[in-house]
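ZP: hey, is the zinc ion complex queued? I don't see it on the tracker
AM: it wasn't, my bad. submitting now with these inputs:
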Amino acid sequence: MASLALYNKQNTGKKRVSYFYHSEVGHHYYGPAHPMKPHRLKLAHHLILSYGLYQKMEVYRPHLASASEMTAFHSEDYISFLSRITPDNLRNFSTQMSKFNAGEFTDCPVFDNLFEFTQIYAGCSIDAAIKLNNSQSDIAINWSGGLHHAKKSEASGFCYVNDIVLAILELLKVHARVLYIDIDIHHGDGVEEAFYCTDRVMTASFHKYGDFFPGTGGIKDTGAREGTGFSVNVPLQAGMTDETYAQVFKPVMSKIMETFQPGAVVLQCGADSLTGDRLGCFNLSLNGHAECVQFMKSFDVPLLLLGGGGYTIRNVARCWAYETSVALGTPISNDIPYNDYFEYFSPCFKLHLTPTGQENLNTEESVDKVRTDILQQLQNLEGAPSVQFQEVPPAFMTTMEKGGDDGGKGDDFREGREVGGEVGSEMKRHEQDIGVD
Ligand SMILES: [Zn+2]
């Protein structure tokens, strides 16, 4: 019977999907001139509702992440600052605003109920990770998460609290190895930095590289210390098409799944890599973007789907509604159903996007070179003596064993990597909080 159940599950492509959403998240406002619009989350949610997809999945309202949950990764003084600052008391915090990169001279403004906003999206990601850890879902979704630029003690690129790092730390309580994939057009620098020195998390980021925020994510940045080879960076150019993206994404991810064998996968689905994005310069259709979701789903490993960037908000809603349907294996119509935000989808009222005639600067040769270099990096991992994938001990044991050399900062890292070096000890404290060790 067991084998029959497995057979049916694989053939129908049906997964148990849980979806995390808080009705207040879309009411937060970065300001009139700011491109990040949490309102897009309301558009996406209502589109998902109008397609009837909520009937096929478990829908949850998250708990609000506490400050102590956030300090599993972030520093206490930074979280204390985020929890206290408001537009009305700014003048008392000028030194800290500069130190933590927040306020009017940065891209991370202080707005009303900022901390509650971070509590919502981080709470969703943590709850989603717990759902996967308990084997209660095959796929968990939080479109309000994926804020990949936030650092341990610094806001960056519209991101304050790094919900992705918090979710991965949660997954590491159960899984020996976690894979992070980032298809936002920007480099997933905050997540990469957090896990740059560990072999328990592999990060793979596909992004525009060269004269583009945040400037990191070169192909030669592959990790440090025990994490050497476990950071994968795929630098790409403007005009990226569905076809070219698949030519690099699929072989790289296949090789990663084969060599790294993660117990869980986190996929950040930033929608600023779509055609027509206000800040992006790729030319992907919904199909090309969602093909990454479909492809990772096919490996039958617990999967956490997160949002991220996305600045043409009607297309963000289209993208995440469609990717919800892909996660569910439920086809949906190309005609947008009537909903509270129907007018946003004017004039065509269609779901799918048509790429433009923009030139694709990713040539056959450039993509071939990138793919070859990365496959070689992954090939080298297989021969690395420290990598014994079949014999990785449970999470808490690994953490304890590594405790002795976590604090060393003398190694020759790239500027700023010291922060990542401390994640091991942060992780240990996180686990002590719940009494694992
Ligand atoms: Zn982005």
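AM: back. Residues 1-11, 393-437 have pLDDT under 50 and may be disordered.
ZP: great, adding it to the tracker
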